[in-house]
Structure formats: structure tokens, C-alpha cells
Amino acid sequence: MGKQKWALYWAASCGGCEIAVLDVNEKILDIAAAADIVLWPCAMDFKYDDVRAMADRSIDVCLFNGAIRSSEQEEIARLLRAKSRVMVAFGSCACTGGIPGLANLTTKDEILDRVYIEAQSVVGNGHPVFPQPHTRVAEGDLELPVLYEEVSKLSQVIPVDYYLPGCPPTPDLIMTAVNAIATGQLPPPGAVIAGEKTLCDVCPRVKQEKKITRIYRPHQIIPEPQKCLLEQGLICCGPATREGCGAQCIQANMPCRGCFGPPAGVIDQGAKLVSAVASIYEGDTPESVAAMLEEIVDPAGTFYRYGMADSLLKRKRVGTAGK
Amino acid sequence: MSFEPRIIGILCNWCSYTGADLAGTSRMKYAPNVRIVRVMCSGRVDPTFVLKAFQQGADGVLIGGCHPGDCHYSTGNYKTARRIPLLKKMLDQLGIEDGRVRLEWVSASEGDRFQALANEMTEQVRALGPFRPAAPSKPAAMEVAALAAG
């Protein structure tokens, strides 16, 4: 069997997934032995036209990180889907929308206003300039990708074969995926390359009776290193987050932020977290409910931190009175 | 054509559903807009149910449970009393109006209270208008099936 052809692409993402690929350290040589890279905009100088010239399904595997929020990202996602036999949603943004998905709590106009008018560093002359998809200059027409109203996860745009969650995916999981692909021992299509259960299921901390009397934000307390973080009042997304990360944040004394997305069988991570956190908050009076609401400052941003695009409602409704 | 709200009523078996049943057997007339789903306890109402109702076209969701202190399972309604307000705070961030989701306590003997609630909430949601999920900015982005076929 000859070498496989791989493509790596980034869409709406921070670049951390690219670093994660290099975090496999010396095993990168195994990857180089197994595959020839045909596209990797972050690291290598191939052009989109090189990919367009390839035959359909001639790329063995595409590792696609990032969510979709512009016309360029959608175009390349479709192009790579057509050229690739196996499409892997790589990282939280591609799997569930990730941090860019939080843009779905606002609107495109609000984002553009913030960036091009309100930001403290913008020097205004009363005539704000917004990026335009088409601009005519003396030398000809210039084009920019169109920014969409909302952020989508990859599988809302193209069919995805496998999901490799995490912000970013851990080196262990990346090598699990690489080995499966290189040896042809692939899991059933649609599989998430991580655990099935929740992070709580594998969490090494001591769990007693789940009761919260007050919710703290991570900067407000230094938690005990052995005891369940939820029981100490920190919102830990472990009850509704897929395991497979090795509990890295937990072991660094930080609560889970939910980047692995919901466990198998859960369709809305945020709703499950509302349920879990509210259930264990102590107090049955209207006053204690009000205190809980006060202490949970940003439920949508906390419970859908990585999963807004993946949620049942996907985004804020536009044109209503909601804050 | 006038707008008829579609409201999903998720009612607990022991109090609110029985209260709605009493309204029926007592031949009380009330708005037919509340479609009732019976659950064993209001504590069974996963916030996912509420989101799914909206996603599938409901205009409002009414959750009914036993009065505080009356829960058949002791504490189910107290959990609901914390979950639904937290869910509503989150729904507010998602642009869903306060009046579209209500949590009410109705006992098995309060058929008249259920009648009044069903009427009241129907008018409340009628005033808010139909619930429309946020329209995708680019319908083409949803053509997953078409691409899979091609």
C-alpha cells in the first residue's frame, strides 16, 4: 500500500488545533511516514487550485478544524468533502461550533458594529468603513469572503465521517485517530473518537453528596485539590460532557468547560447542565432561587460555551426583545 | 387567519394532570390550545423537553407540578422550581420571551385554576405571536443531504 494523502484545513478556529497536531511530538514522524500532506494552509504552501485539480475522492483523509462562518470556509469545506474519502471534524469548533459558536448569541450587525465602530482602538472619523465582499480598484475587482449571520458546526454544512472533539484534541486521541486511519481499522461512520460516558464517570476526585450552597466563579476561590469541584461551588461541566480528555483541566484544579461536547445520547449539552446545576443547588425558597440566578451570571455562555451551534435552538432569535 | 397558539403543557401525574382532568370532567370550558403531555413528576421535565418543543414548532410551554410541599416524591417539584427559572434566564439570552414558558402549581382539586391558567396563557402567547426559530442565514448551508447524494 502506498502512502496516504492527507489534507489539514482550518476554518473559524484559533489555530490551537494546528499546534495540537504538532503536540504529538516525535510521533509526527509516524504521521509523515504514513501520509503525504496535500493541503495544510497553516504550515505548507499549497494552493486551493492544487486541490481543485485533484480527482474526486483522491484525498484519503481530511482533518478539518474550525467552524463555518464565512463563504470561503463553506466553499473549501465542500471542496474538501468532494475530494476526500474520509472527513474528520477535528476539534470542538468543527464538532460543535466551539468558542466561535458563541457568536450565535449576537448578530452579524452587532459584531461588525463592535469591531469597526465601538472598539476602543478604532479611530473614528464619523464614517465607519466595513469590509465589503466586492471592491473596485484601479487594478480590477477585489473580493473578500462573506461573513454569515451565524456560525455552523461542520456537519451542518457537509457530511462528516468522524468526530475528534476537544479544544484542542489531546495528542493521545489524535494518535488513536491517526493509527486507526493509517491501518484502515476505522470505527463505524459517525463515531466520536473519545469516550461514551461523562467526564464525571472517570473523574478522579472524591465525590460525596452533591449540594451547592453558593456558586463561585473560578477566580473567586482556590478549590481543594481532591474534592469534587461542583461540590465546592464551581460550575464544572463534567456531568454533561463527554469523557476522553484524560481530565486534564480537573487535574489542574480547574472545572471542566465542556469542550468535548455532550456524551452519547444527549442532544443538548446546555439543557442538561441547567438541569444538573439547578438540581443540586441547595434551598427551596424563592430567595434561594433568586440567589442562584444571581450567581450564575451567564448561563448560555457557560453551559453552551463550546456547543451553541450544536444546540437545539442553534442561535439567538433575531428581531425579538431578548437581551 | 387568526393566530392560534400551540402550547405544550407538561403536567405531573399526581396534581396538575389530575387538576386538568377535573376541569374536563367538570365540563369547564377552556382554550383548546394547550396540548397536554403527562409525566410522573414535574421533576421529570428535562429542560431539553422545553427546547425541543420550541424547536419543533410550539409557541409556548406550560409546566405544571404539585404545590410546594405536596410533591408525591417529596422533592421533585423543588428541583423543577430551580431548573425552570435558570432555563428561563438562559432562554432570555437566546431571545425567547419570558411569557412563552411558565411554571405553575396546580393541585388535583384545582380544576378551575387549570381552566384559568390555560385561558390566560393562551392569550399571553397569542399576544406574543408565533414562535419562529431563528432563520438560518444561508439555507444552502443546510443542504447536507443534497451533497451526500452528489
Can you tell me about this structure?
The complex is a heterodimer of chains A (323) and B (150). Chain A is an alpha/beta fold and 323 residues long. Chain A folds into two domains: 4-99 and 151-183, Rossmann fold; 199-303, no CATH class. The N and C termini of chain A lie far apart (58 Å). The radius of gyration of chain A is 22 Å and the shape is globular. In chain A, strands 2-1-3-5-9 form a five-stranded parallel beta sheet, with helices on both faces. A two-stranded antiparallel ribbon of chain A has the order 4-8. Chain A contains twelve helices and nine strands. Chain B has 150 residues and is of the alpha/beta class. Chain B has one domain (7-149): Rossmann fold. Helix content of chain B is 41%, strand content 15%. Chain B is built from five helices and four strands. In chain B, strands 2-1-3-4 form a four-stranded parallel beta sheet, sandwiched between helices. In chain B, helix 3 links the parallel strand 3 and strand 4 (101-105). The longest helix of chain B is centred in the middle third of the chain and has 18 residues, at 76-93. Chain B is globular. The model of chain B is unreliable at 137-150 (pLDDT under 50).
Percent of residues in β-strands of chain B: 15-25%
Largest interface comes to: A-B, 48 and 38 residues
How many strand segments of chain B? 4
The portion of residues forming beta strands of chain A comes to: 5-15%
Helix count, DSSP H or I runs of 4 or more residues of chain A: 12
Biggest sheet strand line-up of chain A? 2-1-3-5-9
End-to-end gap of chain B: 41 Å
* CATH homologous superfamily designation of the largest domain in chain A: NADH:ubiquinone oxidoreductase-like, 20kDa subunit
